[in-house]
């Protein structure tokens, strides 16, 4: 039987309150300012969301000071964060780092994250998925980390980095490094609402939280849950694009008619609606599969990424196109969604990566 | 018909003589370019006396080849895309001999940059609905209104302007076409930033700007016919040239593929090869279209080439970002680059991805171009429109 894919009253309340808060506190003009170097929005939003609303520790078990909520709730949150492009480290810290730390049973760090005193980033390149993960940092005999990890998300304003590294015997370790002990070089990238940084470690002190197979499992847990839930962010992006586009089609006139009255345009909107609704079902299913610990969660994650990534990009591209010249401007927010959607398509594996992962899971490999 | 071999021979003779008389190494750039124009070696398909020889476009490659080989300076066409691609063919087709002599040399040499003052906030796809007014006063026109998305207006010396001269007739009949001095009082240019971070285009405000009647192109009230010729040429300029195999966007992606064996995946490979074939097919199709056109004016068929060009540019650049993974997300700078050349394939993959989104909007959106192909090439009936028979002033605004 397929899990319940509808939302409960409590879940609806969560999204409504988040949507209200983000509408007020995260206007697109502030997101736009991040492209011109003003990232003050990130620092203002996170205390409200992470601490006041308790999102920092949403997935942290209650015994470690969190809310002990499920992946379903995280999916609701991510859909709203996608809709508003809120530049907060929820996916990177509260979902991915928490998943890894929980697998590694790092109770202290979980407690710190749940309390909101710091955020943590898993130090892997943004595009990493389970099949492409390869550690590039090393841990020496004195417990110091060396090396470079490029294009990592969620490091800005974080307190901790969760660094996969090779130990002197070539084994995998997962080590916590104080962000201040690494050189973080911020990068100009396509999506400035989720800034990336190059990390350099030149003998940074580290605490090993787990090693060997258990480290690999912790990283897998983070990458897989991240992929499953990123799909909900993509649904939020796509929904904003659809709503905004339909709004414009009902308002803009050319040749004496609403542009939404042209069949060529109308059909495109209809197709997009069907895609977005399907994406929502697929993303909810992936979240439910993780919440329920279902055996199907790996297939569900791969399907969610292979499907929802392209839907978000398509929706954003249609949004730009159907706005005509206005959609191509800096002032109109459509491009912010286009940029996030395109970056998300690459994040945690491209649709092609996830189709390849899926092929292995469903016995359809080449 | 003249014998093609004979034409080629005579053209090569002309070129050698010209190069003997104007040694590129000893002649200053502008002098050289002006002389080239005067000799009819600017664009061979321009008329005799207007920088050309009235030959089919195909012969131009011989000319360009000879000048390139001689190390001669060129007219930096990438800085004057609108001038060369749109204004020049319109002036050739509709200009008086005086207008052609006055505007074409400076346009072709690149001394004067040109812009296209067509689109308005209320009139993009529906260009003929525009409301910028030109009112006659003595032997001048007084222009008031606003244009938008005007590429390179901030560096342009001249603009081609479509304005309403008669609001009392249906919209297509009340337009006239002007050449606008961008330095004239009452013409104000304000930059607009676009999603790449750059400011290629602008808003242009007209407050009682004066244009002499001698700078009108075509008859009063026939502006729509003139503008249509401009637009056909624009679409040819964007999608109609015949690039070398694997150049432009497909060249960029192919290079990235070869440079990144570690990122090779079967699905990306399949998509790349499909697009490579599409790009090659489009290239050959535009060569055929150019042969069909020879020296004539482009028709609505050019719209098909522009449509395909936009789709390919978008799919290829999108693929390239996926091919590069997170490395493909790097962006050089968000602050305006200050580059005034049209640059579709420069900078990084992420820039190319963003810039290509404009290709299906600028010069007529892909939706509108499909209508053009369906209605003007295939002669399918248009959709019902309430706006073509009523006087413009009575249309709901
Ligand atoms: C980068 C760039 C550079 C430009 N440079 C110039 C320039 O130099 N000079 C200039 O004059 N203009 C320029 N333009 C403007 C361009 O020509 C217009 O943006 C374009 O014609 C669309 O008009 P619009 O923006 O008003 O969109 P609209 O016409 O409002 O269109 C909105 C959407 O509706 C669709 N649509 C409209 N009518 C129909 C229909 N009948 N059937 C189906 N779909 C329809 C469109 O395809 C589009 O998707 C530029 C635009 C861009 C993006």
UniProtKB/TrEMBL annotation, chain A:
Residue ranges of domain Acyl-CoA dehydrogenase/oxidase C-terminal in the record: 219-359
UniProt feature coiled coil, ranges: none
Cofactor names: FAD
UniProt entry keywords in alphabetical sequence: FAD, Flavoprotein, Oxidoreductase
Cited Gene3D superfamilies: Acyl-CoA dehydrogenase/oxidase, N-terminal domain (1.10.540.10), Butyryl-CoA Dehydrogenase, subunit A, domain 3 (1.20.140.10)
Pfam family, one: Acyl-CoA_dh_1
Keyword rRNA-binding: no
Residue ranges of domain Acyl-CoA dehydrogenase/oxidase N-terminal in the record: 9-99
Any one GO molecular function term: acyl-CoA dehydrogenase activity
Family label: Belongs to the acyl-CoA dehydrogenase family.
UniProt protein name: Unannotated protein
Species: freshwater metagenome
UniProtKB/TrEMBL annotation, chain B:
InterPro entries: Acyl-CoA_Oxase/DH_mid-dom (IPR006091), Acyl-CoA_Oxase/DH_mid-dom_sf (IPR046373), AcylCo_DH-like_C (IPR036250), AcylCo_DH/oxidase_C (IPR009075), AcylCoA_DH/ox_N (IPR013786), AcylCoA_DH/ox_N_sf (IPR037069), AcylCoA_DH/oxidase_NM_dom_sf (IPR009100), Mycobact_Acyl-CoA_DH (IPR052161)
Domain Acyl-CoA dehydrogenase/oxidase N-terminal: from-to ranges: 33-111
Keyword Flavoprotein: yes
Cofactor(s) the record lists: FAD
GO MF terms, alphabetically ordered: flavin adenine dinucleotide binding; oxidoreductase activity, acting on the CH-CH group of donors
Residue span, Acyl-CoA oxidase/dehydrogenase middle domain: 115-206
Keywords: FAD, Flavoprotein, Oxidoreductase
Location of the Acyl-CoA dehydrogenase/oxidase C-terminal domain: 221-378
GO CC terms, sorted: plasma membrane
Repressor is among the record's keywords: no
Matches recorded under PANTHER family: ACYL-COA DEHYDROGENASE (PTHR43292), ACYL-COA DEHYDROGENASE FADE34 (PTHR43292:SF4)
Similarity section: Belongs to the acyl-CoA dehydrogenase family.
The protein, known as: Unannotated protein
Organism whose genome encodes this protein: freshwater metagenome
């Amino acid at each position: 039987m397929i899990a319940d894919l509808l939302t409960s009253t409590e879940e609806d309340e969560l999204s409504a309150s988040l949507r209200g808060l983000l509408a007020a506190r995260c206007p697109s003009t502030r997101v736009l300012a991040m492209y011109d170097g003003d990232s003050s929005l990130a620092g203002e939003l996170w205390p409200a969301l992470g601490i006041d609303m308790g999102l920092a520790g949403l997935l942290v078990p209650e015994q470690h000071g969190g809310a002990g909520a499920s992946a379903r709730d995280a999916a609701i949150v991510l859909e709203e964060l996608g809709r508003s492009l809120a530049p907060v480290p929820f996916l990177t810290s509260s979902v991915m780092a928490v998943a890894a730390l929980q697998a590694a049973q790092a109770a202290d760090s979980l407690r710190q994250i749940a309390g909101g005193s710091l955020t943590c980033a898993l130090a892997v390149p943004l595009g990493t998925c389970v099949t492409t993960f390869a550690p590039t940092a090393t841990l020496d005999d004195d417990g110091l980390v060396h090396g470079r990890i490029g294009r990592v998300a969620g490091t800005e304003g974080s307190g901790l980095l969760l660094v996969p590294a090779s130990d002197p015997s070539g084994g995998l370790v997962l080590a916590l490094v104080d962000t201040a002990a690494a050189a973080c070089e911020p990068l100009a990238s396509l999506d400035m609402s989720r800034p990336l940084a190059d990390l350099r470690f030149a003998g940074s002190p580290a605490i090993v939280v787990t090693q060997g197979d258990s480290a690999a499992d912790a990283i897998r847990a983070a990458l897989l849950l991240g992929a499953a839930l990123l799909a909900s962010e993509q649904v939020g992006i796509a929904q904003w694009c659809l709503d905004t586009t339909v709004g414009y089609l009902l308002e803009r006139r050319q040749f004496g008619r609403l542009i939404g009255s042209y069949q060529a345009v109308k059909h495109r909107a209809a197709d997009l609606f069907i895609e977005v609704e399907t994406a929502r079902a697929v993303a909810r299913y992936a979240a439910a599969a993780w919440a329920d610990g279902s055996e199907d969660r790996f297939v569900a994650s791969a399907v969610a990424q292979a499907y929802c990534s392209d839907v978000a990009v398509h929706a954003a591209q249609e949004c730009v196109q159907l706005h005509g010249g206005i959609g191509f401007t800096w002032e109109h927010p459509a491009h912010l969604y286009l940029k996030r959607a395109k970056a998300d398509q690459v994040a945690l594996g491209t649709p092609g990566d996830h189709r390849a992962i899926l092929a292995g899971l469903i016995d359809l490999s080449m | 018909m003249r014998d093609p071999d004979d034409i080629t021979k005579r053209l090569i003779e002309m070129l050698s003589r010209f190069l003997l008389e104007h040694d590129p190494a000893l002649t200053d750039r502008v002098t050289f370019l002006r002389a080239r124009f005067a000799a009819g070696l600017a664009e061979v398909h321009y008329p005799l006396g207007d920088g050309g020889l009235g030959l089919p476009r195909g012969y131009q490659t011989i000319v360009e080849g000879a000048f390139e080989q001689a190390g001669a300076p060129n007219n930096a066409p990438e800085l004057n895309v609108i001038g060369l691609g749109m204004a020049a063919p319109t002036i050739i087709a509709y200009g008086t001999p005086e207008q052609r002599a006055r505007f074409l040399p400076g346009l072709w040499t690149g001394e004067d940059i040109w812009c296209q003052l067509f689109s308005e906030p209320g009139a993009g796809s529906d260009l003929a609905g525009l409301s910028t007014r030109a009112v006659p006063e003595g032997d001048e026109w007084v222009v008031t209104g606003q244009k938008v998305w005007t590429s390179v207006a901030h560096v342009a010396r001249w603009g081609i302007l479509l304005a309403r001269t008669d609001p009392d007739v249906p919209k297509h009949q009340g337009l006239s076409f002007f050449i606008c001095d961008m330095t004239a009082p009452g013409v104000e240019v304000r930059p607009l930033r676009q999603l790449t971070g750059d400011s290629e285009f602008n808003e242009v405000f007209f407050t009682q700007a004066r244009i002499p009647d001698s700078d009108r192109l075509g008859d009063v009230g026939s502006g729509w016919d003139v503008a249509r010729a401009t637009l056909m040429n624009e679409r040819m300029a964007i999608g109609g040239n015949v690039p070398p195999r694997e150049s432009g966007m497909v060249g960029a992606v192919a290079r990235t593929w070869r440079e990144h064996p570690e990122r090779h995946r079967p699905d990306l490979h399949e998509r790349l090869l499909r697009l490579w074939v599409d790009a090659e097919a489009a290239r050959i199709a535009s060569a055929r279209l150019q042969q069909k056109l020879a020296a004539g004016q482009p028709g609505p068929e050019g719209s098909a080439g522009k449509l395909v060009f936009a789709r390919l540019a978008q799919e290829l650049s999108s693929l390239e970002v996926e091919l590069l993974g997170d490395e493909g997300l790097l962006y050089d700078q968000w602050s305006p680059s200050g580059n005034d050349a049209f640059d579709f394939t420069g900078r990084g993959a992420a820039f190319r991805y963003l810039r290509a989104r404009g290709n299906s909007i600028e010069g007529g959106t892909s939706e509108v171009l499909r209508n053009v192909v369906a209605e003007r090439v295939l002669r399918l009936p248009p959709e019902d429109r309430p706006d073509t028979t009523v006087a413009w002033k009575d249309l709901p605004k």
